[in-house]
Structures are given as C-alpha cells and as structure tokens.
Amino acid sequence: MKIITLSLDDLHQELGALLDTRFTQLLHHLRAAQPSEAEYLTTQEALAFMHLSKPTLYKLRREGRIASYNSSDKRVLFKRSELLAYLQAAMKGGKPTG
User: Fold this and answer.
1) Are 40 and 79 in contact (CB under 8 A)?
2) Which one of 1, 67, 88, 91 has the lowest number of neighbouring Cβ atoms within 10 Å?
3) What is the CB-side half-sphere exposure of residue 69 using CA atoms within 13 A?
C-alpha cells in the first residue's frame, strides 16, 4: 500500500480539477442532448439529468437554489433550462441561484 500525503491546498486543487473534469463532461453531454426533449422534468428525470441523490435535490429545492413547479396532477417538476443554468454556475465556481 502506498501512502500519499497532501497539504490542504493541494487536496483542494486536486478536488477542484476532478470536479471541473466531471462538470465539463456532464455539460458536454447535456449540450449534445436533442432539443426535442421535454422542458419540464419529473423528480426522477431531474435526478438522472443532474446526477444527484434525491436528498441533495430536495435540499437545493428547499434552499431555493433550484426552482420547482407543481403540475396539475400534483407532481413536482423541474425546468431543464434552470437545472442546466445551475450546473453551469456551479462549474464556474459561482454561487448558483435557483
């Protein structure tokens, strides 16, 4: 087993680089998505779209960082363009708002 020691700054840099790579891949995939996809997503679709857990998505919703909408059949829906904007803001290191 090999042990590697990193300073807190080095760890922060490494994690930032890893997250940048993952966000870049995700945004590339999202931009390549067909424009005919539905604008409003169900909770399950939003989870898959953002690659988040349900508790994390609900936390972002509670905090007002991601907006949600109620449909006529009482389902919670999320607007695809708003989710994409949130991801883009997160990738830029900004403070995403819903």
Assistant:
1) yes
2) 1
3) 13
Position 97 in a domain: no
List Cβ neighbours of 43 (8 Å cut-off, separation of 6 or more).
Answer: 54, 57, 75, 76, 78
In a domain, 96, yes or no: no
pTM of the model: 0.58
- Is the predicted pLDDT of residue 29 greater than 80, yes or no? no
3-state secondary structure (DSSP) of residue 4? coil
Give the CATH number of the domain where residue 46 resides. 1.10.1660.10
pLDDT digits (tens, 9 = 90+) for 44-85: 999 999 999 999 999 999 999 999 999 888 899 999 999 999
Q: Is residue 1 part of a domain?
A: no
